[in-house]
## 1
Amino acid sequence: MNHMQVFLTYSDIALASGLIIIVLLISWQLRLKLTSTLLMAAVRTIVQLSFIGLILAWIFAREQWYEVLLILTIMTLIAGSAAKNRVKRSYKGLLTDTLIAVGTSATLVTAIAMIVILRVQPWYTPQFIIPILGLILGNSLTAISLTSNQLIETFHEQQGRIEMMLSLSARPFEAVHEQIRAAITNGMTPTLNSMLVVGIVSLPGMMTGQILAGADPTQAVRYQIVTMFLICVSSTLGCTISALLIYRRFFNKNQQFTLPR
């Protein structure tokens, strides 16, 4: 059985871009006031992906470890900054905390994927490590930002309750354990929901892209299973690290509950 491959041209991209007009019409008709945001998002999508496509093509052709490492570092820094920017209540040191949470979880899980599961040689092969890290970072930063946002908000809103529990001889972690548990659960919800319906309600982007590119569907499925588990582990680690770092920010050396600047 022959598998047809479809190669997209710039005219195909232009036709797909024209579909945005439907969204703009809906926004205008319902007065959603999203026109400028939609246009900006569409333009940035084209520009950013075209730019990264050129960079990746150059890196894939050279395969130099230091260039790959530079790209991975930049991706991680941007992800950490994006996670921090999604938190409504900021404090001094939040960027550092989100960078540690994102960087530690994504680096650890990506290393396991490259060395233990895929056994890619060399480990810095850009064709594998860049898209895998990108998938992990994109999902981890969402989970971490959800956890951080809820936990910080809860600490501010429930300051009196936490201080009351401390006054009743509760240990610091005991006083905020319920809030930490709820925040981590909230951060993990999108990932868990995605895992529950994958293959039944939705076909993930990575799997769909491989199939459209002519890959064997069974191999595409295996890659998707691996990436889903990697995302789940990375998100869990990231949420946990983020919650613990925030917890430490809200207690001083004397184990007293304080609101950071």
## 2
Amino acid sequence: MSTEDVVRKSPIVNLAEEAKLASEGVKAPGHAILSICKSLVAGGVAGGVSRTAVAPLERLKILLQVQNPHNIKYSGTIQGLKYIWSTEGFRGLFKGNGTNCARIVPNSAVKFFSYEQASCAILALYRQQPGNEEASLTPLLRLGAGACAGIIAMSATYPMDLARGRLTVQTDMSPSRYRGMFHALKSVLREEGPRALYKGWLPSVIGVVPYVGLNFAVYESLKDWLIKSKPFGLFEDSELGVTTRLACGAAAGTVGQTVAYPLDVIRRRMQMGGWHNASSVVTGDGKAAIEYTGMVDAFRKTVRHEGFGALYKGLVPNSVKVVPSIALAFVSYEMVKDVLGVEVRISD
């Protein structure tokens, strides 16, 4: 699908056209609103399925990110998964996944709607410049729109992400346990104050820009290159197959998460700050792990005490889950889309 088609088929663009037609006395159907709702349902289901499938790797990634360097329990992907299985059983592999899935639907909804709005607004402003009247969305414009959508969606659902992180980290040996997402949110609010709900928010905001931006830029650039260059004569038309799009999406996700990963590590560590009940973030003598006064302080102390490599703890399981997660998201979304009759893809 070309950028022109994306803009033309955007539900937000359709809404704008319907409003214009309504102002001119022409009756237009409420088709666009229904299309948005169906797309959000499909996207939410796809996100939940894909996240659940890679939940063990997601939990291990977070445990690797925040474990105390003086009390190593998880030394790698295979060893870490075996350790979780032996100490917490099958359910331990999926700890925190319910909270993770609970935030997928609103996060996808806000991100989708925000991206469509931002894309249309940025493109409209760009076309106001002389010589750009017929311009279409470029990778750079998509980067900006994706960054805006990512920041808005992340900010709207950040407390749930913090609760999910803490539920994921706690184990059966934790002195005090959260019983669920809402209990975690209430406990944090009561014990640590409202500001604690947004611990690690700044590195998250900074990390969203390269992550979401590069996802769009790399994905679109790869698709354009494959369509235009037709390497080895593999492609004869202007549309790429599902397998090729999956490969492009996997490459884009890998590049984006690798660049933004250190900020994700810092975010997780800041989220755990002030919480002394996770066995993975306390020392052997029961004392709390290192406290951080801010993002820069977290970077400095992490590198000083554990080395630069600590900024990429958990990268392997995170990278391993990128490809199956994206693949399952696409397959699940297509299945739900066929059932509901969705016409516009969230990925577009």
## 3
Amino acid sequence: MQVTLVQLAATLDSAANRAQVEARLSDLDGSGLVVLPEATMHDFGPADHDLAAVAEPLDGPFVDLIAREARRLGSTIVAGMFERTDDLPYNTLVVVGPDGGLAATYRKIHLYDSFGYRESERLRAGAIEPVVVPVEDLSVGLMTCYDLRFPELARALVDRGADALVVPAAWVAGEHKAEHWRTLLRARAIENTVWVAAAGQGGSRYTGRSLVVDPWGTIVEEAAGGDELVTAQVAVDAVRASRDVNPSLANRRMSTP
């Protein structure tokens, strides 16, 4: 299956972001899975920016756009948004199938209360419910940005059948951050013998470097920091082959409490 990662820099103008997404997807062709970054609907903005005021329902204009584009492309699209509630919004990934229907949602479990930032003051954490969704012949597990630092979530997704992990992110730039991003993505692939496809926001604020890692931990495609597309062929046979040689999941003797 072809996977396309769309690296972009969102703004504080939701309508402009929708127009950007529509333009970036206009020339795509042949991808079974298209992945957009975390917060594609609307950027996080400064710490005092009210995300509740801009959050949208799951039947709002952002998801409507993603549904139209999924139908047009005949692809499954994963994209990040802020989902409206009666209080703080969720940091949500929507998965829209090629028929335009909402196939799944994942509400970010681990909020980014780290590196001097407190995402939990602006957003609410999702329930601890790992989400795996079928896309063609793959089972795809969903993680968002800071979730990457918690290997137990990746393992829970694999235990639920995931043979690929998809990681939309707005990975804030800074000292050590690009090294952490690349290292953690490769580690999640190696320790779980799965594909990892990570779509990051680019621009000056974020790390960019969207990439695809194979089940051996090899980076097969990687972007730099600008508006780029990353395309790779992802096959479940590679997962089976790596697990035949390295059956570390089958060799486990410890279980989580």
